[in-house]
Model the fold of this input.
Amino acid sequence: MMRGLAACTALVPAVCFAQTAPTAGQTDVPAATPAPAPAATGDGLEDIIVTAQRRQQTLQDVPVAVAVLGGPELTAQHITSVETLGTAVPNLVVQRSPFQPYVAIRGLGSGAGGRAFEQSVATYVDGIYSGRANQFLNPFFDVERVEVVRGPQSVLFGVNANAGAINIVNKKPGTVFEGYASAGYEAAYGGYNFEGGVSVPLGQTFGVRIAGRINRDGGYVHNTVTGKDDGGADSELGRIIASWRPTSDLRADLSYEHGHKLVHGSTFQLTSLGAVTFPPAIEDGVFDFRKSAPDDRGFTRLTSDNVSLNLSYNLGGATLASSTGYSTFDFSQYVQGSNHPAQIGGARAAEAFKQIYQEIRLTSNGKHFIDYILGATYYHQKDAIDQGTDIDFVGFGVPGLTAAVRNNLLQTTNGYSAFAQGTVNFTDKLNLVVGGRFSSIRKDGDYVIAPTSSGQPLTGYQFDPTSLFVLAGPPFGFFQYFNPADPATYRASAISRSRTFRSFNPSASLNYKFDRGLSVYGSYTTGTKAGGYNDQDKSGIYRENGFASDVFEYASERAYNFEVGLKYSSRSLRLNLAAFRTKYKNLQVSISLPSGALQTTNAASATSKGIEGDATWILMRGLTLSANAAYIHARYDDYPGACVVGDPNCGDPATGNARGGRLDGIPDFSGSVSLGYNVPLNAKWELRFSGRGYHQSGAQYQSAQNPLDRTPGYELFDASVALAQIRSGLNLSVSAKNLANKAIRGFSAPSVGDALYGHYSATLPGRQVFIDLRYEF
Done:
């Protein structure tokens, strides 16, 4: 049987829209507990076991849209991080911004806003919530599977799963001694990786698994000023998991993971020139694999530690489960202020984050007339974010003049919630699922903005009145409370705030299974993402400074989703279709300010509607065709005060409006087609061939709807060939991504002083050629 059919194909993940209750005998399993391997079904498509609904179910049985990539698929496609998931899952967008990743599902994402910004796509790693982008920047390794759940998931995944959830399940110790070792080389940019994992049973009831990865991604954007290649990264990660099963009813999994990642420079480059021009050999404004930043100080460094404990105990009629986690990371970064040869300064940041997470669930066992999940969640976060911007006015024609600002946020968050979901099984074919979650999240923030001199540390800096004068005016607009005629305004601004966000999110779905593998469903789900504080604001427009308006806070956003779906499955064909319409209220949006900072605000409303589909077809023994496609129309319904290019009322809250504008970073269409073919050479060896084509239409960045921040559509072509032992053992593969070596634009924004220096975009990797050797035992 062809390996990889358990996840539909080695190139495209399984995407299924399910609608039936769990089958008899299935029990609640913490997200950290690995699902058993699916049973083989000859040459047919296999069932895929997931825990996206906090209990073991086949992928076809969960009443939501879920895409699943197993460990072999992640390895074959060189998907090593959340960022590289984007082209593998329809209606999932992941892009780099200058400050943190931008992640969106079905048009809703958190933008590229401040560092204190929670993602609208909740991420769980072994059952532990990871709401901050920096908590999942490290590469994947030794992964059992990744589940991407689309649409609001607030009932089972919490208040911040407004767009959906990403559930990462790492491999756990087994009952036999087994493992793997791999080494790889990327020829185009000089990258490499070494990875290994081993499970060691220590008796009948206890076992450990140890895994690690060392990885280098070569730089792929050449800096014409420094002569170096930017965008490379070095990572070192390790994990140990201990599993204890003293009885058949009790299981405990204790995990510790340490990671370190260092990114060299950035991949941002100019896509258009402003009034200032440069020698074409240095900067011509053409988007390719070249940039022209004035120095090589740019970096991003992350060190993280994560501990999790997952317990489950079968009480007979129900299973009691607990997920406990402690997460911490230290983050530091220097971002060059310009993506062109002119020196205008840069921005520095340091962040220290700690989180404690606890969830308890009670899940009914088996299949009854009414099945249920009951639970409660608590998390505590403490986040110290120190940032600084140093500005050199030589780039604006005033050599010798410098100024600086420091802004510091200390934020404490406490979240409480209780949830329940029940399934009424009217018949074996018809069921109704109803659920709800009540949440209360309190955020306490202490925030300081202060003028200082260039080069000062991020904390313990000295007040500098010169910077107060220089930065209070255009184009920066910092310290708007400052009045040269009033000595009382010669000061920093320090404020303290406390806000509590409460919400109730209901959901319901009606599911019917016909005969011969055909089923349909309809669902209504809601989501809420808590509001927060703008950790990058430097204007000082706060109530405490005498202003009627206030830009420090932004409100909660809400999502209301209607969805219908159809699926068909047989031994050789799996087909899934879903249509959805999601209404957003108070959508949290990030906008680029003239100073280069990103500010979060609320758009009044937006609507995202579309259709998704995927198919997997076994054409013949060993030959599998897979395809997926997604169309989405995501637009602002009302965004008063938004500054739209070409609008004469730009910036006027009464008349300026981005109504009808496209949401950030969302292509209207995306899709892929792939073909996998396995050719047995003898009883032990086979050749594996695969090819894939991917298309994405263009996307708009920034609410101003500027055509200069609109990225064009593109196509990607990937291919691989492998010589492998059929069951286990050696696997030697050669694969390539982006065969045409296209320069592809990602996140786009105006430069600081865009009239002078144009606009910029992130650059995605060009052609990559991988040579990998893997041994499984």
User: Anything to note?
Assistant: The longest helix spans residues 465-471. DSSP finds four helices and 43 strands in the chain.
